[in-house]
């Protein structure tokens, strides 16, 4: 069976030296459009106390000279991004009056190279020759150069001539050079069925994921992720300049983002693979309803708002679709304090962060495993009185992220 999905493939630009100056101009123009619209949005907010409507901003910006620096659809995309940023700020402002609105794209007296998106009438793709033609706005066109012709190279396992269609192309400055991101519609083959088993996941901050499989409990700690955040965040702040982020600061921010993305992809790949190998066809994922509105104190809130539970769920969802594992979002209400064996929900049963001791049936368990088992039982309730301890709930397996291989392995394999 095949399913349709959206994928983004990155291509390096082989003729970078020839097109770099042109891409710089487009990236600068995108920043200029953002800044003019941002200033306009500020005036609208001051006058009406309402966030600027995207359609209103587009109508106003069409009369501005910078609008025609880009293809019309590319200019519209900049305004759509700004409108989304204003909406996110407005939503956050309901909870935090000190929240900062979207900023200007400016580093001292210069503008950064913004991402430029080319929709269907802004690019022409030639996948057989690995070339793509990117349109300029009328202000930047010359009689001999109405477009930029980029020659690109993707990973060896990616062939863009085989995708259903390229939806749009983004020119992205990665901090060192321009690269192309191809957003494509693809058909993916899926297996008929992964199995009849059910597993549950408890998502957390220390243990990023704890999985209750039918026959075993597995912890996936986030130690390496925490170390990366500490190192690269410190590197970013240590190199912050008076005129905004320095090149070193932007490098640190980019490297952290790349490592986080790799970690979450590797984590979700490992979990879905385990599901398939163990005959699990249904995966219940804990969903912390309204958790962003909680107040955990200054330090706790910082951890809370960097918790990527929604990102993990989305990765699990689409990877599960590819391998016929149904991923369900289940409210985690009371799963951390309820005994997975007898149902006792006495709050004091949660002795400490990592330990659960039931005052009724005397189950002794790893607290995260108890929560994951409760998630599993939301789909397949265990018979009353079933003994789920037997050492496995209290002493689960631990799979650690191995930096050397970039994969998850059991603790023993990583240590050795």
UniProtKB/TrEMBL annotation:
Residues 181-291 form the Probable transposase IS891/IS1136/IS1341 domain. It comes from the Archaea. The keyword DNA-binding applies. InterPro entries: Cas12f1-like_TNB (IPR010095), Transposase (IPR001959). Keywords: DNA recombination, DNA-binding, Transposition. NCBIfam families: guided_TnpB. The lineage of its organism: Archaea, Methanobacteriati, Methanobacteriota, Stenosarchaea group, Halobacteria. This is Transposase, IS605 OrfB family, central region. It comes from Halorubrum xinjiangense. Residues 106-122 have a biased composition (Basic and acidic residues). One of its GO terms (biological process) is transposition. Coiled coil: none annotated. One of its GO terms (molecular function) is DNA binding. Residues 96-122 are annotated as: Disordered. In the C-terminal section; belongs to the transposase 35 family. The keyword DNA-binding applies. Residues 309-374 form the Cas12f1-like TNB domain.
